[in-house]
Amino acid sequence: MNRSPLDPCVVIIFGGTGDLSRRKLLPALFRLSTEGRLHANTLVLGVALSAHDDASFQQVAIDALVAAKIDEAEATAFARARVRYHTISRDAPDFAALGAHIRELEAGSGLPGNRAFYLALPPRVFASTIDGLGAVGLNRSAGWTRVVVEKPFGKDLASARKLNAHVHEVYDESQIYRIDHYLGKETVQNLMVLRFANTIFESMWNRDRIEAIQITVAESLGVGTRAGYYDQSGALRDMIQNHLTQLLTLVAMEVPSAYEADAIRYEKIKVLRSLRPLTQDDVVLGQYRAGEIDGEPVPGYLEADGVAPDSTTETFVGMRVFVDNWRWQGVPFYLRTGKRLEKKLSTITVQFRHTPVSLFDNFGRGNEPDQEAPPRETADVLVITLQPHEGFSLHFDVKKPGGVFATQRIPLHFRYDELFEGIPAAYQTLLLDMLEGDQTLFVHADEVEQSWAFYAPLFESHPGVVGYDAGGWGPPEADRFALACDHLWKDRWDNKEPT
Ligand code: NDP
Questions:
Q1: Using an 8 Å Cβ cutoff, are 105 and 111 in contact?
Q2: In a 3-state reduction of DSSP, which class is residue 17?
Q3: Cα of 148 to ligand 1 centre, how many Å?
Q4: CA of 123 to the centre of ligand 1 (A)
Q5: Does the annotation count 243 as an active-site position?
Q6: 323 or 356, which is more confident?
Q7: What radius of gyration do the chain's Cα atoms show?
Q8: Residue 126 CA: which ligand 1 atom is closest?
Q9: What is the pLDDT of residues 241-269, one digit of tens each?
């Protein structure tokens, strides 16, 4: 796709002193700058409650960049040239003063009035900040005005609708960039290339050839310092409703009419509309107990600071979803995510159907003689990996060389970092797209509401949680939502395979 040159603009980061800004946004903007993607006059204006002047906030930015392993001299040059600061009050935020500051910067640097407002804020102030911007006319300018809204976008269908209505009073949908950073990962975008640029996959991407699909986002970390927030949220809201559901729509969608935002978002919404209503039988929610990870003891969820002692918040979700359309009728999609699992790992696993007749069942599978031959469940499998190494591997049988006729399962693998240098971080990709006005990898209002509507029954009647030991793979009750080839992705992380 042709990319138009980047316009000079001001990137206004609300929450400029916060964790997201320091760990992700400032490093991403730095890299865009060093790669020549930011216009020479583009400025970054941090906005937050803390009292800083330009110089002291520039130091915050330099420290953040150095912490992200960026050379201090380069970090300093970037911060001094591009980074500015504006303090705003919590109780009586003066948006008119912010507007005046932005106009002053624009006049000083010859900027034409293009503005990107990034709301890296606590969700409770999303709506009031948007109101404030609208009230002083910061929703329109001589150039373009865009607003990036971080997750979580609402906490249920009603609040998401309310927030959408609120945002739409101030900004048009074409100005709004709802971010889901999973969509910025190379592998997620590559999923579309894999499917739509290669007949080999797309011709098999249906109920005739695919047995089941599993989307796993496993974390070994617990809730850490986010326990207070997390206890009000849980894995359904924090991971399933947004990230895993977005991945599901990209895996399941029809071929769009073009690689552009409206066409792709239209197809994703069609998938969400085709989801079969969930029953309680389709879902297992879990909560981690104390256990061991990498030989170290870790406490249980209920022991974390900020978690209610009788909390029933889920830290694990295993579920089965069906897409009731012609392509996917009868194919289960298993979604699974959890904290304090054995390894950090994000994969999309596509299990193809068995051959109708197996010629080689009696010939063994190349196992050691004293090993019991695995059952004939090893259908071909495509494992798309988002973390820790972006890439994919296709697992299939080959004949083992030698006199004794035996087959062996081998992976054909592709890893981004083995083939390409300098894979951009997800936030870098998404910031660049936003600055270019490309909404393809951002989430439309209808997608957000449709997704919340799908999960609404689980919020209205929470199924309750079962315990699981930290360091395992979730509660055994959820094992029924696993592929027959599930051992593949577990074994791979015992260094048995390269991807
Ligand atoms: P932090 O708590 O670290 O930072 C919050 C920021 O907001 C601070 O800069 C704070 O200013 C500022 N702030 C608070 N209230 C106001 C207000 N009324 N007006 C202006 N600024 C205000 O949060 P995070 O950076 O972790 O998260 C920000 C958003 O990003 C959240 O919506 C979160 O869900 C989302 N997010 C965060 C991720 C992360 O990795 N951190 C990942 C994905 C999403 P000050 O410091 O001066 O008090």
A1: yes
A2: coil
A3: 13
A4: 8
A5: yes
A6: 323
A7: 24
A8: 32
A9: 999 999 999 999 999 999 999 999 999 99
Residue whose CA is closest, atom 42 of ligand 1?
20
CA distance 92 to 28: 31
Stretch 458-478: mean pLDDT:
93
Cβ atoms of residues 337 and 217 within 8 Å: yes
Segments of 359-479 assigned E as strands? 381-387, 391-399, 407-415, 465-469
| Residue with token string 């004794």 | 404
Mutate to test the pocket of ligand 1, among 14, 19, 47, 133 (most ligand atoms within 8 A of CB): 19
335 pLDDT higher than 90:
yes
Distance 314 CA to ligand 1 centre (A): 24
Residue 422: predicted pLDDT = 79
DSSP 8-state assignment for residue 429: H
Nearest CA to ligand 1 atom 43: 151
Give 11's strand partners.
Answer: 44, 116
- Please report the pLDDT score of residue 408 as a whole number: 83
Ligand 1, atom 7, lies closest to the CA of 15
pLDDT tier at 411, thresholds 50, 70, 90:
confident
**For residue range 63-95, what is the model confidence (pLDDT) as tens digits?**
999 999 999 999 999 999 999 999 999 999 999
Catalytic site residue from 101, 181, 243, 395: 243
Query: How far apart are the C-alpha atoms of 10 and 426, rounded to whole Å?
Result: 21
* Cβ(270)–Cβ(254) below 8 Å: yes
Global model pTM greater than 0.85: yes
